[in-house]
User: Fold this.
Amino acid sequence: MGLFILRRSFVMIITAICLTYIVFFLTNLYPNLEKLAKTQGNFRMSDEAVTSWLTKEGYLQPLPVKYGQWLGVLPGWTLDTDTGVTGRCFKGALNADEAGAAKSFCGILQGDWGSSTVFQDDVSRIIGIRLGLTGKLMFWVLVLMIPSALLVGVLAGMNEGSKTDRTLSTFSIITTATPEYVSGVIFIAIFTSSAVGLKWFKGTATSAMADANFNNFFLPVLTISLYGMGYIARMTRASMAEVMTAQYIRTARLKGVKFSNVVLKHALRNALIAPFTVIMLQIPWLLNGVVIVETLFNYKGFGWALVQAASNNDIELLLGISVVSVVVVLLTQLISDIGYVYLNPRIRIS
Assistant:
């Protein structure tokens, strides 16, 4: 197991480098850099002025060099100007002695994620705050979604072909086929709009960032949970229906084992192997797929920050968000593979 984790970790590092390099390449295309220069300077800047600004900020270096500096494996750039020495690793202009004493490496590996041009704050601090807010949302979504989906899937699989199975399967298909922005708008119109008159939920998701309660937090949680619930329920139903027809299940029932014990102790563990992967895949989806819901309910979490960074061409924040997203996806894949072994001892790692 240790060797397997070590090999997978090495593959994860290579994958992360490749993916972040692709994102770095796309965000550092010249049209994006030109837009950034004009946003930070003047929209009427001439081409010469844009080139001068990009040169002073180190954006016109070769792409592999910039990527290495961003990672922190290459020393940051420095530039001699009329006011002193400027560089990536320090703010403002310094004299030659001060610049020589300053740190040379300042990238992701050193904990320096850059500064956001939109929020005028450190990228690491912005991501930490927004990721914490989305983490709170994800936690309650998982608390509601996973038990509900497993219950629906198990009940449908135990009663394959019955009216209960058809009803629960239809419910799962409807929840999966309804996009979040549709169900979110419907919930807002029914439960919060004054036009309908119900007004069951008077709070807003914006207020939930500081003080989450049932009134201001339930609708975004329900909106995300319903969409992801159908995938898990359908996979659980298929696995449960297959397991319930297995020979060892029939033998256990013929020996007089209680049906509840047959389901909980024998069938459920094997039936959860396939849904376990779907559940783990929900975590990166929740991290990046909540963009619509957070924007719809004005909940300023990780997805909201991604929208703000993309719409305002905030390159450093986009790169920081991409790093977090890649790491989360790769880690969930590793956990999923490890979980296979514990759920099904017949799986061996060669």
Summary: The beta strands are 78-81, 84-87, 90-94. The chain has a mean pLDDT of 84. The radius of gyration is 26 Å.
